[in-house]
Write a structure and sequence with these properties.
Layout lengths: L1 E2 L22 H4 L13 H8 L33 E7 L5 E4 L6 H7 L8 E4 L3 E7 L5 E7 L5 H15 L10 E7 L2 E7 L6 H5 L7 E2 L1 H20 L5 E2 L8 E3 L5 E3 L6 E2 L10 E2 L11 H6 L1 E2 L1 H17 L15 H10 L15 H17 L10 H22 L2
Parallel strand pairs: 1-9
Antiparallel strand pairs: 2-3, 2-7, 4-5, 5-6, 6-8, 7-8, 10-13, 11-12, 14-15
Length: 408
């Protein structure tokens, strides 16, 4: 059964915020409810550019070294070793500096997870294993334990990247960062625990999760767009996430989205100096990678926009970006969706778990139009994340109005 929330929308009014935040991007984005859709090129033209693209995504070894990341070493006996711990002190300018802080210790985390028992494990990723930890004072966190592998330099670089990124961001739709612990060869990151699993889990209806209705999917897409806009426009320096995907979108119990996993994040180019991109080894996940970044090794904010376009198609269809179990014509989800759209058979790509209603059909058509603009093969033809946020807000407003009208 499709999970439905109680909706009582009137006149397209904005939903009340679920929590306060030291920075709210919503106020700067949602003042004007009549947002124009980019019209530089027709949607069908944009779609035709990429209808035949097949991206061979890969992740070559990163050449970045972590030699400059100083791990604190133990200085006493085996039973009295001290761990290097860190947290952040937030300042009025939004930046953060690393400081020594005794809030978390390795032994406290070790005891709380009973020697990192599998029974406390809640996730697994490229960085390592994620555990749910409840400390003695009753507070609950998510603990990310880095893999111990032969690629230690790369692991150290990713660990440092995530600390530096999380330490400077504060937004309602980004996971909160609480600190880190380095103990001998253990590297541990402590972040906010988000209780309701990942977006991908819900799209798969994993472990009995209910189907997300279209209203909730639009809310999630809008939350993610706001979070990425914040990273691109309101952090200093700007941040490129580089791994936007459904398994990195966590959902709260109220089904609000939080973007997680900053291990691949990079600082955006310094536009004041005239730079247009960052040259870097390709990082990301197969199916979500920007084809221009893949071929040129030039990373920009528009690489996140491309990944966001893939995510939008995933949210609407329920399919993963690459589905090897399907026939050749349906294996690459965005290529399949574009062909259906350009042939006038848009409704057939709607997630079969959703009902075909006027409101759902409107949302499907409008969001796909924007998604295909995000998927343009050349970054100059893609909208900014701010523009995506504005368009999504307008689509969500129209959807709610139509939903109220048809439910009368």
């Amino acid at each position: 059964m499709t999970r439905r929330r109680s909706h009582s929308y009137t006149g397209g009014s904005s939903p009340a915020p679920t929590a306060s935040s030291s920075y709210s991007i919503t106020s700067s984005i949602t003042t004007d409810r009549s947002f124009p859709t980019p019209t530089d090129k027709s949607t069908s033209s944009v779609a035709s550019w990429i209808s035949g693209i097949f991206i061979n995504c890969f992740t070559p070894p990163d050449s970045v070294s972590s030699k400059d990341f100083n791990d604190s070493k133990s200085s006493s006996s085996e039973h009295n070793r001290r761990s290097s711990t860190g947290s952040t002190q937030r300042h009025n300018n939004g930046n953060a500096s690393e400081t020594e802080h005794p809030r978390f210790t390795f032994h406290e985390i070790y005891d709380a997870t009973k020697n990192f028992s599998p029974s406390f494990r809640i996730g697994q990723g490229g960085f390592g294993t994620v555990y749910k930890v409840k400390l003695r004072d009753g507070t609950t966190f998510a603990v990310k334990r880095a893999k111990k592998s032969m690629h230690d330099d790369r692991q150290g670089a990713e660990f440092k990247s995530e600390i530096q990124t999380l330490a400077q961001v504060t937004h309602l739709s980004l996971v909160k960062y609480y600190g880190y612990v380095v103990h001998d060869d253990e590297k541990i990151l402590i972040v906010e625990y988000v209780a309701n699993g990942t977006l991908r889990d819900h799209l798969d209806c994993k472990e009995g999760k209910e189907v997300l209705d279209m209203a909730t999917r639009l809310d999630i897409a809008t939350d993610v767009a706001h979070a990425i806009t914040y990273l691109h426009m309101y952090t200093q320096p700007p941040i490129i996430h580089r791994d936007i995907k459904s398994s990195n979108i966590l959902l709260t119990e109220n089904f609000r989205a939080k973007v997680a996993d900053f291990g691949f994040a990079r600082l955006a180019p310094d536009t004041e100096s005239g730079a247009t991109h960052v040259s870097t080894q390709v990082k990301g996940t197969a199916g979500y990678l920007d084809p221009e970044y893949l071929t040129t090794y030039q990373l920009t904010e528009k690489s996140d926009v491309y990944s966001f376009g893939v995510l939008l198609v995933e949210i609407l269809t329920g399919r993963r970006p690459i589905e090897l179990s399907r026939g050749q014509k349906e294996r690459i989800t965005i290529r399949w969706a574009i062909k259906k759209f350009t042939s006038g058979d848009t409704i057939s790509v709607l997630d079969p778990k959703l009902e075909q209603s006027p409101a759902n059909n409107l949302a499907l058509e409008k969001v796909l139009e924007m998604a295909f603009q995000c998927l343009a093969p050349h970054r100059g033809s893609r909208p900014s994340m701010k523009k995506c946020s504005e368009i999504l807000w307008g689509i969500r407003k129209d959807y709610r109005e139509l939903l109220n009208t048809t439910s009368l």
